[in-house]
Amino acid sequence: PAYDSASINLNNGWGGGAVKVNYRLPKGAKAFFMNALPHSPNAKGYKSIYEGEHECLIARNSRWKVVGKTVDGEGRIEVTVELVGQVKPKDL
User: Residue 54's domain spans which residues?
Assistant: First the structure.
């Protein structure tokens, strides 16, 4: 199956005109966590030039629901999406 990457940087979440997206994955969701946050129990010596960054690969045929959206005084948009289902790829 194919996977899409969700890269999250807690310190630099705002870019030039970008929308910040927070992903919520329920327990048991099919995903691969490439690394961990430095303060998490499974970090075990994790180091990154981007402090606070971690990455997760999420099954490509996932369905998401927008569960939150905010716009601050500077017009920056933050969206929170929650995984509601993963579709089995046709080639499996």
Answer: 3-86
